[in-house]
Every structure is written in C-alpha cells, then in structure tokens.
Amino acid sequence: MDFTHFARALPPCQPDIPEDVANRRMFAWITTTLVLVLAVVSYGARIWARKKSYQPLKWDDFLMGLGLLITFEPAICEYLLMANGLGHHVCNVPADQRQRFLHITFALQRANQPALLCIKLSILAFYMRLFPSKRFGYFVWANVAYTIIWAVVSWVVNLTVCSPIAYYYDKTIKGGTCRNQVISGTANGAFSLLGDVFILALPLPIIWGLQVNMRRRIALIGIFLLGTLSCVSSAIRIAALVNFTPLDGTYSQVYASGWTFMEMGFAVIGGNLPLLKPLFESFFRLSTGSTNKSKSNSSFPTNGSLSGPNVSGKSRKFTSSKRDHLDADGFERISDDGSAGNTQPNSIRDIELGDRTILVKKDVTITTDPARPEHEKEFVNRIQSFRH
Questions:
Q1: Residues of the chain with CATH 1.20.1070
Q2: Whole-prediction pTM value?
Q3: Does residue 278 surpass a pLDDT of 90?
Q4: Does residue 78 sit in helix, strand or coil?
Q5: Where are its TM segments located (predicted)?
Q6: So what's the pLDDT on residue 29?
Q7: Are 299 and 348 in contact (CB under 8 A)?
C-alpha cells in the first residue's frame, strides 16, 4: 500500500516519546483487559443467579449473552492494534503494520452497533418483565424502535464513510473519497448517548413512586443508575473522537477505540448487576434475621406477614408477605398505579416460578390451643421458616 500521500498531508514526522507511547499502550491494554474480564464475570454471575433461583434463561439473558459475545471482536481487534503500531505516530510505523492497522480498525468498527443493540434490547426486555404495565410498555417499545433505527442507520453510515468501501483501508484505489470521519463518529456517539439516557431514565419515575421507605427507594434507584458508567464512557468517547486524526490513526486512535470498547463493556456490566440479587439473599437474610427473631420471640412478626399474638386462645390470622409477588430476580413487579404486586383483590396470588405457577392462599386462619402454647409456637416458627 502506498502511503506517500500521508507524508504530504501530515506535518513533518514527529518522533515518538517513549513515555507517551508506553502510557498510551498501557491504557489500551489495561482498560481492554479489565473491562472484558469484569463483563464476563458479571454475565457468569447473572447465569449463576438464574440457576440459584431455579429459573430458566429468558430473552434478556440471551440478548445480553449475544451482546457480550460480540464485544469479544473489538477486544481482540484492540490487542491486534497494539501489535501493529498502536500508540506510535504513523510515520514511525512500518508500512506492512500500517496496512494491517487499517484493516483491523475497519473490522473493529463493524461490531460497535450490533453489540450495543443486543445489550440495550436486553435491558429493555428486562424492564418489560419487571414492569408489566401497559402504559410503561408503550415507552419501552418506543425505546426499542429508537434503538433499532439508531443501530441500523449508524452501522450503514459508518460502513459507507468511504466510497468505495474498500478505500477505507486501501488508499491506492483511484478516485476514492472519504467523508469526515470525526463528524460521522461524533454524531453516532451522540445519538447512542441519547438512547442510553432514555433507557436509564425510563424506570426512575416508577421506582421513585414506589410505596416503600426512602432508604429502599434510593437503593433501587442506585442499582438502576449503574448504567451511568456506560453513559459516562460514551460521553468521554465523543470527546476523544473530536481529537481523532485519521491521517495519524495509530497515534490518535488510542483513546477513541479504548473508550469505545469500555462503553460496550460497562453497558454489559451495568445490565447484569441489577439481576444478581439472588446471589446475596443469604447475606440479606442474615443481616435482617436477628431483628425478626427478636420480634418473633415476644409478639410474633408484625411486618405485614403475621398479626400480633392472641393469648386468649382464639383465632389468630396470618397473612402472606410481599414475597408472594416478587420476581424471580428478587424485584417486585410494579403495577400501573406504582404499587408493588398484584392489583387484583383476590386472596389467591400467582407467583412466577419458571414455567410453573404456584397458587398461594393469602389468608390463613390458625386456631390455637391455650393448653399447648409450645406446640403453637413451634408451628408458627415453621411457617416463618417456610416464608423466609
């Protein structure tokens, strides 16, 4: 490949500064490796959480897995770029490595939109499962449409930035031209960031309106705001693209390609973390068990699951807890009015458990015998252990 036109377009060749080259290459290596490992671990934990709660994999799990699989392509390309001059000024890179660098960069850019499309659709599918509200579903489907349109249009625009397409990596083609890659890349990143903000903000009004205490409400919002990592990466990527110089891509592409991969990796991580609650159920039970136990020793639980004691020997009513309408991931399904659980006034509640359904009676009447308080207490304790 002839690169003589690069020499005419660029200022005089700049010598590489060893410390600068080392820092750029270290940034590329550390960020790619660390984010890739965290993304794989978070998805593995997600699958483990499914198995721990005896749940089959669902559409959001498959879409996230496909998105993670696609992110391996830019990760591999990033390592190949480091082996072919990444971090050096282009004039200091051998001609054969420059040629390979352009081919690898072209391949790297093909995976960005497909990976983010799968990841974003996975998050939206999870929203639809968690918030089965028809009104909320309209907003979710609007985001689905926006995400698909963005992915298709930006992928085509990115592919055809040079005409003919092969001119991107083969500048010897006569009559070939390229549009401004900085403008097209920045526009693509801006529309992607806008979609991220839409997805991130979608469940927040419902969560804020939940009929739960403020501490739990803030905790839930914090879990869903983990997606801001991807938004921040996308914003930094846009800033890095502004400083990108196509004619010196081996040097100026370091941060642009690095933050591009981190945007995908953090999107995977942020989409997986809210689903890991089943892995920490034992810890949460231990942290709250002592309080519940102290209450049960004197007056039995009074947190909505059991009524106070009736020492006269008459009937005592025990009602089901909020666990009856918990999703398999540990979240409560949200109704149209912002309240948790089933909105129908039946005493029978459906619990989703994979492809099986358990019918749970909401009201249970237990007649106690004052002559045998120890037996009664043992029976109540068994009910408590079943519920928890």
A1: 4-275
A2: 0.71
A3: no
A4: helix
A5: 26-49, 144-169, 189-208, 220-242, 254-276
A6: 95
A7: no
